[in-house]
Amino acid sequence: MDPKIAKADEDLQKLISKKRLKSIEDRRVSSEIFDKQTLETLYKLANQNYLAILNGAISTGKEANVLKGLKDDKIADSYVAVKIYRIATSDFKKMQYYIEGDPRFKIKLNNKRQLITAWTSKEFRNLTRAYDAKISVPEPIIAMNNVLLLEFIGDEIGNPAQTVRNQNPLDPDDFLDKLLIELNKFINKANLVHGDLSTFNILNKDEYPVIIDVSQSVVKDHPIANDLLVRDLNTIHNEFKKLGASITLDEIKNKLNLDLDLNKDIYLN
Ligand SMILES: Nc1ncnc2c1ncn2[C@@H]1O[C@H](COP(=O)(O)OP(=O)(O)OP(=O)(O)O)[C@@H](O)[C@H]1O
Ligand SMILES: [Mg+2]
After folding, report:
1. From the CB of residue 262, how many other CB atoms can be counted at a distance below 10 Å?
2. Does residue 261 sit within a domain?
3. Which one of 2, 10, 149, 162 has the largest count of C-beta atoms within 10 Å of its C-beta?
């Protein structure tokens, strides 16, 4: 196991065993990868039986770390994915911009922590909306501060599913067909636009797509929804073309029942 994760889990275990102490200061734990609030949040989640152990890193990104956790240390395969937004390196300008245009968030967010909490809860809400519309996404479990727990996508022995970028589909046309069925529900049933759709944010779970990373997804009446949709679909078209799929942009549009010019100019930063 990555020594940093081992240290983080050790910290979490220390917290769990000292849970009667009154404040986090008393617990004298430190961690290289978690700040105090994150550790406190993980501790609360452990205390509420959402999480027992952290046991490995799945991905270390610019804005978030995704770890593998076990819900119950007595049940061998009770894996959960633990997505932790890092306060220090997040792109606050982008978060603010996306949240301000979203009618579900009519609050003024004036500090970074509040903004990250709103961002995490936005991902949770988007995921819930997609999951409720029976779209192939990880099941959301809970969001607390900057931590999101979600269903672990992988096999029974804890190997996470790879992204389509890392594990190209065996039959790109067939895989894209399945993806378009999921995207049709995403757009027309959940009324969401992904906003960062690419082969990096689609997992290949036994040759079926699982859409992930929906924090920046917006409701269809968001002012930039159409531009994001045009960008997403062009990206998917280009990337799958490179993988060998033969579908055209027009066919994609038809399969998604869209009345939209996918060649239009877009204005996104
Ligand atoms: N539920 C899950 N089950 C298994 N693996 C996951 C899950 N969610 C995310 N991952 C893995 O973690 C990686 C990063 O997740 P995600 O795309 O949600 O974060 P991110 O916002 O892109 O992070 P960053 O932008 O900082 O790179 C994914 O590419 C995938 O490999
Ligand atoms: Mg991602």
Report:
1. 16
2. no
3. 149
Q: What is the DSSP string of 160-205?
A: BPEETTTS--SSHHHHHHHHHHHHHHHHHTS-EE-SS-SGGGEEEE
Which of 151, 172, 204 is where one domain is finished?
A: 151
Q: Which residue's CA lies nearest to atom 16 of ligand 1?
A: 213
**Tens digit of each residue's pLDDT, the chain (269 residues):** 677 777 777 777 766 655 543 444 434 444 556 788 898 899 899 989 999 888 888 998 778 989 999 998 777 779 999 999 987 667 778 888 888 778 787 666 678 888 899 999 999 999 999 999 999 999 999 999 999 999 999 999 999 999 999 999 999 999 999 999 999 999 999 999 999 999 999 999 999 999 999 999 999 988 899 999 999 999 999 999 999 999 999 999 999 999 999 998 888 87
Would you say 16 and 30 are in contact if contact means Cβ atoms under 8 Å apart?
no
Could you tell me the pTM of the whole model? 0.90
Read off the amino acid at residue 64: A
Rounded distance from Cα 201 to ligand 2 centre (Å): 5
Site residues for ligand 1, CB cut-off 6 Å: 58-59, 61-64, 66, 81, 83, 138, 150-154, 160-161, 163, 201, 212-213
**Termini Cα distance of the chain:** 38
Instruction: Give the count of domains, the chain.
Output: 2
The catalytic residue among 72, 196, 232, 261 is 196
Does 230 share its domain with 140? no
- Which range of residues forms the domain containing residue 20? 3-151
Task: Check if the beta carbon of residue 41 is closer than 8 Å to that of residue 144.
Answer: yes
96 and 216 part of one domain: no
